[in-house]
Amino acid sequence: VQLQASGGGLVQAGDSLRLSCTPSGRIFANYDMGWFRQAPGKEREFVAAIRRSGGYTYYADSVKGRFTIARDNAKNTVYLQMNSLRPDDTAIYYCATHRGILSTIREEALYDNWGQGTLVTVSS
């Protein structure tokens, strides 16, 4: 399974974007899914995750209240709705599948099937 993130672009501060993530192979309904981002010159960091059922979600403090992760297993798609974007949200955003236990859902090392990412640029 390889994941393809899309929906990035250039927006102004305060705007919204919705990112999508779809697999190129078999369905991912059995996986917890996560979004990460990497800003220029920085390490990749956790943004949000969602359990395989879609019933539970997790967020980095920096995006809590502004971003919403959701999934549609029938469409094999995970979404990241990003509202009130800020310049410090500028990054390449990646989605990936999680293979660890719940307590590791924020740990990058336990994610697989990284795609190429989608660039989000927020101007001030």
Number of strands: 11
Quaternary status of these chains? single chain
Main sheet summary: 7 strands, mixed
The share of residues in extended strands comes to over 45%
Sum up the overall morphology in one term. globular
Order of helices and strands: EEEEEEEEEEE
Radius of gyration: 13 Å
Report the end-to-end length measured between terminal Cα atoms.
37 Å
Structural class: mainly beta
Output the number of helix runs.
Answer: 0
Q: List the uncertain runs.
A: none
The overall pLDDT, averaged over residues, is 93
Query: What helical percentage do the residues reach?
Result: under 10%
Describe this structure in words.
With 124 residues, the chain is mainly β. The protein has no helices and 11 strands. Strands 2, 4, 5, 6, 9, 10 and 11 form a 7-stranded mixed β-sheet that branches. Strands 1-3-8-7 form a 4-stranded antiparallel β-sheet, with no helix packed on it. The model has no long low-confidence stretch (mean pLDDT 93).
